[in-house]
Amino acid sequence: MNKLTADDLIYGYINGIFPMADADGTLYWYSPDPRAVIPIAGYKPSRSLRPTLNKQQFDIRINADFEQVMRCCATPRSIDDSTWISAEIIDAYTDLHQMGLAHSVETYIDNRLVGGLYGVAIGGAFFGESMFHHVSNASKVAFHHLIMILREQQFSLLDTQFINDNVKRFGAIEISKREYADQLKRALKQKARFTEAAVEHLFRSHAGD
What we know:
alpha+beta, 7-stranded mixed sheet, globular, Leucyl/phenylalanyl-tRNA--protein transferase
């Protein structure tokens, strides 16, 4: 197989599939059934997270260091763990980021990157890929701001691929592959945009909340 490209990723996402790498770097494409999604309108921050949000202890940045977010997400969580984010995947998504279709939401303390997430935005669909944290609640705060951005720009689909305990805490549910395809088709027709201007407007409008 030829090296993964940004165009391959675009084709994959609009057709409901996404790549993951094995430990040896071999790429495979997946289309789970059922599929995990997070209803954007239904998300509410947990009671335990609200004090952290109110304290505003994290500096939130968008797309400031996309590649580093990916590299942090690719770091195995333990010595017995492996990663599905290969160097080839990092290169392809970084190219997609430079095209304006892949984005990161990042949390900082004293200018130090301590958490974040990344994903792909096409039309009104955001395809969440991975997140990481080096400080408690850092990735949860990044996710909270992601949701605020998606709501502000009227995205309709937040794809999280597989169900697990990590995404369940954000309200993830499973839907059939057929229902996912229907939602994806509708979302791709939307004109939502994950832009810097939209993010700046969002933060200004919520300043002092």
